[in-house]
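Model it.
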Amino acid sequence: MSGRDDRALREERLLERLMSTSSTMTGVCVALLSVVQLIADSRKVQTLADDALAIDSLFFLLCCYLSIWALRTQRRERTRLLAVAVDYLFLIGMTGLVVIGFMIVYTIF
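Modeled.
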C-alpha cells in the first residue's frame, strides 16, 4: 500500500470515529440542555448555558453531516477540505462543552 492510500485510509477511519463521537455528543448536549433547563426553572435562575448548549449541539450535528459528506464524496481534495472542517468543528464543540460545564457549575450550583 502506498503512502497516499495509507493516509486516505487513516483519514477515513478518523472521519468515521468523529462522526460516531459527534452524534453521541449531540445527544449529550441535548440531554444536558433539558437538565439545565429543569434546574434553572426550579431555582428561578436564567443562564446562558442552555443557549450555549443548543449552539454546541449544532456544531456537533454539523460535524456529523460533514463527516458523512466527506466519506461519500469521490474527490480527494474535497474530502481533505471537509476533514479539516470536521476537525475544527469537533474541537470547537468539545471546547465549548467544557466552557459550558464551567458556566453550569458557577451559575446554577
